[in-house]
Structures are given as C-alpha cells and as structure tokens.
Amino acid sequence: MQQAVYTYRSCGEKDTDALAAALAAWLPAGAVLTLDGDLGAGKTRFSQGFARALGVTEIVNSPTFTIVKEYEGERLPFYHMDMYRISQQEADELGLDEYFYGDGATLVEWASLIADLLPPERLGITIEVAGGSERLFWLTPRGAVYERGCRTMKENGSLS
Amino acid sequence: MTEWIIEGNVKMELGRFLAVDTSTASLTIAVLEQNRMLGELNTVAERNHSIGLLPNIRQLLAELGMKPRDLQAVAVGRGPGSYTGVRIGVSTAKTFAWALGIPLLGVSSLEALAYGAALADRAAEAGGAAGAGDAAARDGRATEAAQRASGSAANTEVSGAANAIASGAAGVESSGVVDAIAGSAADAEAGGAADAVASSAEAGKGSAAVAAPGAGAVGATWIVPLMDARRTQAFTAVFAAAGEGTAPPAWRRVRADGIRLMGDWADELLAQLADPGAAGADAAADAARPRRIVFAGDTAGFAEPIARVAAQAGCAVAMLPHALQASALGQLAWPRLARGERADVHGFVPNYAQLPEAEVKLLAKAQKGDD
Questions:
Q1: Class of domain A6-155
Q2: Where are the domains of chain A?
Q3: Other beta carbons within 10 Å of B91
Q4: Whole-angstrom Cα distance, residue B132 to residue B147?
Q5: Which residues on A lie below 8 Å from B84 (Cβ)?
C-alpha cells in the first residue's frame, strides 16, 4: 500500500501554532511525533506550539544539549527530545522506548538520525522552508491511529 | 570489618543488609537480617524511581531505627528490566557499598521476580487457593480466569500486593490472583510429567535453598517470570521450584535471562516440554518436565502466547500477576553472601540482557554484507 502523505502550508508562526494545536487535540497518550527539517526550519518553534496546546505552561526550549526534557502538560505529559548531538547507539542506551510507549506525547527532533529506534507507529513531520516565513509541513502517518487522525484533518480542511 | 559474613561464622547472625530493585515499575527495598525480612517498602511508578529511591531507603532505615552504617552488605537487582530503572538501582547500590565499605552482590531481577512469585504461589497452594486454581482449569472456568488475569482487576491486585510491608503479607494478598488457564488436555498428562521431573528437581546448584524433604515426589513448578519489554517482547527466563509446603522451595535455574519475542518464547517452551533434550536447556538435569508452569509478573500483555502454552503444555498452566519484591531478592542474596560471593564494587555493571537495537541492526547489516 502506498504511504499517504499530507501537507500543510504555514504562512507564519500563527499558522504553525494552529497546526500544532490541531494535532495536539487528537493525539493520544503514547503518541510519537518525529520532526525533521534543516536548522532554522522551525522545529523548536513548532514544538513550543505543540507543548502549549498540550497545556504545558513551563517555557519550552531546545533540548539539543539535554537530549530529553520532560514537561507536565495539562492534557498529557510532554517529552521533548533532540537527537542532533548523539549517535544512534548512544540514543539506544537511553532506553527511549520507555517514553515512546509511555503515558505522554513524545516529540523527537532530528528523528531521522535514530531511524532504527523509532516505534513503527508514529507521525512523521518534515518541515521545509518555502521562502521567507513560509513553511511547508509534510505529514506521514504510520499506523492506524495516525492515519485516521490525518484523514480526519484532511476532511475538515486542516490538511491537504 | 566484613569478616562477619563468611560461612559458618556465628557473627552472621548480626548480618543486616539492604536489598534494592528498581528494574521494573516496582521500586522495592528491604532490610534483611540473614534471610529474615525486617522491613520492606514498595512503591509503584512507571518511571522516576530516581526521585523515590533514596527517600524510601531513609524512611525504611528510620522505621527500623537504623542508620546506613548499620548495613553490612547491599544486594541489588542487576536487571534485566527498564534501562533507566536498572541503572538507578545499580548506581545507588554501588554508591552505598563504596561509601560504607561493605560487600555488594548482584542478583538477577528476573530471578527475584520469579522467586517472589514462587513464594506467593507456595503460600497460595498451602492455603488451598492454588488448588482451587487447578480445579478451575478442570471444570472449565479457565477462560474466565485468564480474562480476569489479563484485565485491570489483576493489576489492581498486584499493586495491592506490592504495597504490603509486613513479612509474608504479599503471599497472602497474591493468593487470590493465582489463575489457572490449563487447556483441556492438561490434566490427563500431568501425572506423567510429575514423575518425569521428580528425580531431577534438586539437581541444581543448590544455591538459594535446601531441598525440602520429599520434594522429589511432588515434581517441580516452573516459574516463568515476565517483564514487558515492549514491541511484543519480554524479559524472561525459567526457574524450577520443587518441594511443597511453606518451606523455601528447592530452587534452580532452567533457562537463562534474556529478551525474547513472546510468540517465539511460547514455541521454545513448548518445544522444550515436548522434547526436553533438544530445546537448549541449560543442563541435562533440566530435561525433566514440570508438574505445573506459572507465568508470573507482567502476564497481562501476553495472554495469547500464554494461552497457547496452556493449551499444548500437557500440564497445568497458571498466571500469577506479581510485582518484584526486594524481600525475595534478599532471600536469594543471603546464602550467596554467606558463601562469600561478592561483586567488584567499582566494576559492577547491570545486565541489560539485550543488545542495543542499533547494534543488532548493524550486525544484521554486516552479516548481509558478508553474504
């Protein structure tokens, strides 16, 4: 079966926040989002919007140096990861499965660097700079929960 | 200053030691004097045992009127289990041993889980509850029991048992959750299996306990500890507990600790039961078949493979949801400490029983390249 891919065009941070909020509304406990895109594409910015939509009140910043940060969200705990600095083997030794299969929502920046460690069911997001403050989000759902969620978002016009 | 612990030394009677395990959701600590538990403190949390461990140790020692320097050894569950969890317990235990200058001993967390389950199972059998479990299998209540064990009710009971502090209380609380799920063919062959296992039951290394009189006539119970390792895998092993009554079981290992796909593990166990010599048993003595098999620990997620074993095993099969208890770990540790077994405090490392996944894939790639 061909892998469905959905897109979302953001003309600025407000649109990016709207996408993050729309996703946070239906993602269940144990959800895993992967986030890839060039430096400056807006991965951390998207993460902040996503965290806020989950009801995280703390300040969310890049976990590049801490690798993993945990936040208490009103709706779900939020686990924010950044794999930029570590090798796949190092990442493996962190026991990330305990987050992936845990009770919160996990967002992994630079997930492509740990491709072998990701759970099979997840929502892949790639951010592409489309000039100026415009961004193109590519969403690749893997697994029934994510496919259904994305399909619903497409039906109500949030995704194309 | 650690002379007290050598075998045959009367000073052993003064041997108070700390037992710790954080490799599962159960954060469990106990203080034992030889193999007698003085106190145990258990809490359950999916993660962040690092927050609770030291305060819990402080609390338990305070309740016993003890100070850290009153401890004469530390025994720790060295895994397998949660990556992060194992490291919390092991590094804390190493720190205690190093700072206090006392012996450190590592015990398999799977063995501790299995041994605690064996004691609970034994207490239940002595109280007649496990007998009722076997009866349930005979009169067709098996399916209902299995469903109940895999449902939320079972989890509730486990956490209840995990919170028991008094010695022996855990066994009593667990007695209600021993659920038999034997298939219809089980009882017809159980008698033969019991005979087959009889003579080899105490043939192990005799580490934890002395064989109870008459143990050979009863047949061993296989305890199969299960820790959910996600992605349909479990950390698991097989132990045999022989003897009956409330005496400590004659205890030996049948299969090594490992991470296994549960579907494959069910096949392996069935293969070993069908042809005891061929399935990779650790010793010839393990060739004998058990009288019963008890899957213990995180049974809830593995109802299907367990049911498959139950249907084909040719002996009674039961599920015992059970949380790891440091008191059981301590009881395994004591005779080993008394024999002078020690870990190198500085060099001691956890047993993850698992190649990091990245390494596995790297190996697979390398092998592909070789072809």
A1: alpha beta
A2: 6-155
A3: 16
A4: 17
A5: 94-95, 98
